[in-house]
Amino acid sequence: MNYKRLDQNDLKTIRAIIKEEERILYGEEINEEYSHDELSDTVSYPDVVVKVISTEEVSEIMRYAYENTIPVTPRGSGTGLVGASVAIEHGIMLDTSLMNRFLELDENNLTITVEPGVLLMELAAYVQDRDLFYPPDPGEKSATIGGNISTNAGGMRAVKYGVTRDYVRGLEVVLPDGKVVEFGGKVVKNSTGYAMKDLMVGSEGTLGIITKATLKLLPLPKKAISLLIPFPTLEKAIRTVPFIIKSKSIPTAIEFMQREVILDAEKYLGKKFPDSSADAYLLLKFDGNSTEEIEKDYANVAQICLEQGAIDILISDTNEREESIWKARGAFLEAIKGSTTYMDEVDVVVPRGSVNEMVEYIHGLYKEVDIRIKSFGHAGDGNLHAYILKDDLSEEEWENKMKAAMDKIYGKARELSGQVSGEHGIGYAKKSYLMESMDPATVEIMRGIKRAFDPKNILNPHKVCQM
Amino acid sequence: MNYKRLDQNDLKTIRAIIKEEERILYGEEINEEYSHDELSDTVSYPDVVVKVISTEEVSEIMRYAYENTIPVTPRGSGTGLVGASVAIEHGIMLDTSLMNRFLELDENNLTITVEPGVLLMELAAYVQDRDLFYPPDPGEKSATIGGNISTNAGGMRAVKYGVTRDYVRGLEVVLPDGKVVEFGGKVVKNSTGYAMKDLMVGSEGTLGIITKATLKLLPLPKKAISLLIPFPTLEKAIRTVPFIIKSKSIPTAIEFMQREVILDAEKYLGKKFPDSSADAYLLLKFDGNSTEEIEKDYANVAQICLEQGAIDILISDTNEREESIWKARGAFLEAIKGSTTYMDEVDVVVPRGSVNEMVEYIHGLYKEVDIRIKSFGHAGDGNLHAYILKDDLSEEEWENKMKAAMDKIYGKARELSGQVSGEHGIGYAKKSYLMESMDPATVEIMRGIKRAFDPKNILNPHKVCQM
């Protein structure tokens, strides 16, 4: 594609649209953080960062960019892990973080309509204060809701409540040519044409720019309790999961964790984890509207765990203990990052019944490829996070060993009928693995879909399925 | 489009692919039922009906049809209401009803993989016998699961459990050119490229032919109980719904019904409805794993209903009573059809908070347009079914009045931020209403998506967004 390089004339038009100079960063004014995201080593600067505050501004910028074939990259908090919000072709970066208003809480329809820059933690707190509940709970609470929608973020409550897509009812979207459309709405059911809303969710800023989202809420469950369950081995822990899933007591979360990652978290947080009796744990959470209801559920599941070889059942029924456990869990990514010089991640998802095989395989790679790999993840939904650590390897050793480990992990995931990403997306960094794992016919259709939205390929080029 | 008209040569190739002559119907051998669906007045015969039994057959037929630009229409049980399975351009009809095998029940992953011709009632019974649960529950139990997926069928348990899309994990799809691809899989979470699985669901046989579906199951709830709640007026009944939704006791179903429709059902079934005390009812269902749990839920909701003016709370806790109520509910469509000479339907969905306004508006049309209209529907999810009755009107009067009523109903739904179809789809019959209600930019993108899958437009032409 022959993109137009941004010049002073373009900047003049942008200034005319945006009016407030402090919302435009150009050249040297652009902070280093705008050149990358939270993890991937994809680095590229936009020519200009525009901090938009309205749908109209987004629409006008897009119309101008479309007419002039200037690439545009949308960005929220920049907490992504796969380079989806990096401006590979430079051009305009649309920072949506100032579009952070709560527009409407509709208690009759149990929906909330927000701008895309609202942070996940702000949204969760806002609805909780009103006795309502937004279930998706990814680890990164300072991500924007626009970013969560763009990656179809999953998180820790997916076992019981599903993922972000399940809570998006309607979207206002600015198309690459600047037109403003609505997909879905407040309606609960919809069989009206193709699933445009669902297609937008998880499209990583390549099909349109989300400027408003109407989200489904639930009544806030009155009680929650966690069980921390030590097992003699990780294998025994994970083998227990299908028995839990089949029981009629569905937890909101089933996480697995190992001592080595817990140690990192203790060091990172400067705080002891509440138990040190075992090498492997399952962490379960239950919620409901009465203590009795939850107690019945967890007693049932505790029994299953003991039958499958659990060492003990630690019930976390105080806020303090609850916080110390989940804070550790929430800190895993940062803690592992802090334990090494550099790292890269895989976010494979495999059928629940194959988690053990996948985890064991990843463990075996430590020896086979001779590189440190730490993992944790969502045992209840088959989504594993494995982090490959650079430590003191040379650049060349790192590149070779990291690529070898990645190839093997993604290959194994394919063998187990898994997918490249459970919740982090493809972005820029995982594209080659997507191409390897996906039928070429499907890739061709995805590119056709991209063309249907963005025939000039100006919106977030080189991401997902675009080479 | 210039389609090739099917000739003897094409028939010879089809015979070579299919081999068993009794699975090919040609010309005069084609039963009248293949020329239409359950309701819409769209009538057109295919040139040949092919009863396929395998993915390979579907693939070979599609490859041949694609190479020769012969239109193909997929069809399950033909229970649709909007003409989606009618062969407008003639050509080949692929009848998938013989592809009705249960391929795998995976108890570790709680999934079942079936062929598209399995009937909804067969699927429900099969998993129930194994203490498992497939929640989607549309009224038409003899629809195929392939048809349910193609319309993203909703049904009566959507309030608590969601719709068909929420239970489709993976699909095997034959593309228009004959290539076989898989979208999704057994994985629970997926952020790997665009949402192809979700896009296929609800695409009404226009993007590909579903040849296998992996569906999510739940553990079977141990108990269910229904409440039949008479109200003095329909308005009072429907005004109660938002209070129920906001309570922490979510029913699986919230249906509304009126005496006039119940009378039709009594006549049709030859069986008395268990109550005759009121003109309007809410019908609620609760499920769970213990009687106490359900009792607490329904006691809570019963209290809400009484506070909002319900006349009584009739608890259906025997199988007999349960059956007599839900059998009446299930018979509404057929019963209304039997009460008139001919009818057409609307399946609008509006935000839950606007159901009352929509229902009142439809009632008012009876006088305004001077035509009988009967309605019932899913109060809990805003999806209304209204049937416009021909009775003894002349063809001309019928056309005029029916169109006038439809225009007004769809216009009102738009005004209330509703959508054309909640669960029946667009097919052929509702296309003009889709075009009126949808942004032209969105229609253009949908057509681009269609082109990405089917550049020669041979698969189910003239449906959904194709003129």
From TrEMBL, chains A, B:
Oxidoreductase as UniProt keyword: yes
Entry's Gene Ontology molecular function annotations: FAD binding; oxidoreductase activity
Domain FAD-binding PCMH-type: 42-220
Cofactor: FAD
Organism: Anaerocolumna xylanovorans DSM 12503
Protein name per UniProt: Glycolate oxidase
Record's keyword terms, sorted: FAD, Flavoprotein, Oxidoreductase
Annotated Pfam families: FAD-oxidase_C, FAD_binding_4
Origin superkingdom: Bacteria
